[in-house]
Design a protein that fits this description.
By secondary structure, the protein is α/β, with parallel strands linked by helices. The chain has a single domain (about 1-90, about 150-230), classed as Rossmann fold. The chain has helices at about 40-50, 70-75, 95-100, 105-115, 135-145, 165-175, 215-225, 225-230, and strands at about 1-10, 15-25, 30-35, 55-60, 65, 80, 90-95, 125, 150-155, 180-185, 200-205, 210-215. The strands form three sheets. Strands 6-9-10-3-11-12 form a six-stranded mixed β-sheet, with helices on both faces. A four-stranded antiparallel β-sheet has the order 2-1-4-5, covered by helices on one side. The protein has a two-stranded antiparallel ribbon with strand order 7-8. Strand 4 (about 55-60) and strand 5 form a beta hairpin. The longest helix has 15 residues, at about 135-145. The radius of gyration is 17 Å and the shape is globular.
Length: about 230
């Protein structure tokens, strides 16, 4: 479903990604782990088409090359990004926002889905304004469920959450996984991954995937940290 070949990215003279190769099959969930500044979030931003980055290589979504396309085109091709720090939209209610961007669902269908994600009380409030971290992340996952993307990029969706909120967010991801959506979850820590059915784990250090493997890699990170990979 997603195939990345020799993906490089930089901002000005600062090289961030040094040649990422990655393949994710339909419906799989891959975790991308690594220390601060390793390029994990940059990978998400470049896949989504953030114009701040200069990039080269190949990115295929369902065999269609998308690296030269703009953000809105990638969104139309089925890429969705959830942000580490979701932006507030004062003056725009969540209901107005999702009604304008959904693909034909009725208001009643949207409200029923909002209840499933426990965000129905936010529908009449401005998007992501005066919400806690956990509430914002639930709102993001609600929007993801509405869009039903081919690829969901979850950039540190566990950032700033307490253990109860992490369990809640992980539960929502598990409950709404299906064979049509693949996931990349970027995180520093193993906490949220312990509650998810992860198909593959990738360790990113200094802009390179230095190791990939099964869920057992999470325990390896917990026991030895990221220094063990930086020394390789």
């Amino acid at each position: 479903m997603l195939k990345v070949e020799n993906l490089k990215a930089n901002i000005g003279e600062v090289q961030i990604l040094n040649g990422i190769d990655l393949t994710i099959n339909k419906g799989e969930l891959h975790a991308v782990m690594g220390p601060n500044g390793s390029g994990k979030s940059t990978l998400c931003h470049v896949l989504m088409g953030n114009p701040d980055y200069e990039s080269s290589g190949k990115v295929y979504v369902d065999e269609t090359e998308v690296l030269e396309t703009q953000q809105f085109e990638r969104s139309n091709k089925g890429i969705f990004q959830s942000f580490q720090y979701p932006v507030g939209l004062p003056g725009v209610s969540l209901l107005e926002f999702v009604m304008a961007s959904n693909d034909g669902l009725s208001k009643d269908e949207i409200i029923n889905l909002a209840k499933k994600f426990n965000v129905e009380q936010f529908l009449d409030r401005d998007v992501n304004v005066d919400l806690s971290g956990g509430e914002k992340k639930r709102s993001e996952l609600f929007q993801l469920a509405l869009k039903k993307p081919k690829l969901a990029l979850l950039d540190e969706i566990d950032s700033g959450l307490d253990i109860d909120a992490i369990k809640s967010v992980a539960g929502l991801i598990n409950e709404n996984r299906n064979e049509d959506t693949s996931y990349i979850i970027v995180t520093h820590y193993s906490r949220i991954l312990r509650y998810l059915d992860v198909d593959k784990v990738h360790i990113v250090v200094k802009g390179n995937i230095v190791k990939s493997g099964s869920k057992e890699l999470i325990e390896e990170v917990d026991s030895g940290g990221y220094t063990q990979y930086q020394e390789q």
